[in-house]
Amino acid sequence: MNLARPRPADAADLASPGRWRRPTPGGKPRSGIGGFTLVELLVVLAIMALATAGVGLALRDSGATLLQREGERLAAQLEVARAQSRASGVPVRWRSDAAGGFLFDGLPGATGARRPWLDGSTGVRGGSASLWLGPEPLIGAQQVVLVNQGQPGRAVAVATDGLRPFAVQALP
Length: 172
What we know:
Elements: H1 11-15, H2 38-58, H3 62-88, E1 92-97, E2 101-105, E3 115-116, E4 122-124, E5 130-133, E6 142-148, E7 151-160, E8 167-171
Antiparallel strand pairs: 1-2, 1-5, 2-3, 4-6, 6-7, 7-8
Region (Disordered): 1-29
Protein name: Type II secretion system protein GspH
Transmembrane segments: 33-59
């Protein structure tokens, strides 16, 4: 076993600013103090900002999103029923039921069957509603207001002026 005595420090080693640093593999001492550059720090901050923004968007309020999705789904189904009513010449009535869904009366076959809401806590303000989707090209202005039972302060209206298609509008 070879135990070498530590060599005494040279005066040049003690005088250098990086005296506790070991020389690089090439034998030359490192110059300057090591650390991160400003560009590297800015890149890290930019990555952290993007990650924070992504998390913020991922954590959207699901109650508002579900209600908006229910409104868009209902608007699309109302437009389909309206088109079928015009094509067949038979008036169609949409109505909500107390069991947590809705029906299309007047549509042939299974298309008029009861349909549940996507979210069980979705319902119609006032408990029940009815819309007429007659075979005429112009129908009266109509709307139905959807609410989430878990958040009664939030509501969306699915409405038409009688000429335009049904559209979803957020209510304050």
